[in-house]
Amino acid sequence: MNRRFGIELEIADITQTKAAAALRAVGLEVITPGYTHTASASWKIVPDGSVRNGFEVVSPVLEGQAGLNAASAAINALKAAGARANVTCGFHVHFDAGGLGVEDLRSIVSRYADFEGQIDAFMPPSRRASENGYCRSVRDLAAASL
Length: 146
Fold this sequence. Notes:
Blueprint: E1 4-12, H1 16-25, E2 30-31, E3 43-46, E4 54-58, E5 62-63, H2 64-80, E6 91-95, H3 102-121, H4 139-145
Parallel strand pairs: 2-3
Antiparallel strand pairs: 1-4, 1-5, 1-6, 3-4
Helix pairs in contact: 1-2, 3-4
């Protein structure tokens, strides 16, 4: 099944101007609208109060191989421009849940809970389980609702 998705890259150590230039250099349309949660047809660079010495790069809605290619191009361009991740940075992926039923959602939560330890293993300790104020473990949620 081919689902639409979007990504958010919390990055540090470069300026918003440098990040925008790097993304434009690989053919991505970029806007810098300031703080907003409004969806855009362009990549956008926005402030993020949870990121020390950095900001967030938000993709437009992406889909299929073209979307994966655009995400890869953005990540590689930002990395080449000097973007780094510190302990306050995160990488978020949002998937279109259209057409999913209750049992599908239960299955996703259950499977995530089953593999949360492995997923957490590639995260810094400050982002694991319930160690910060921005995310929580899904194990308790899965146990309570499944």
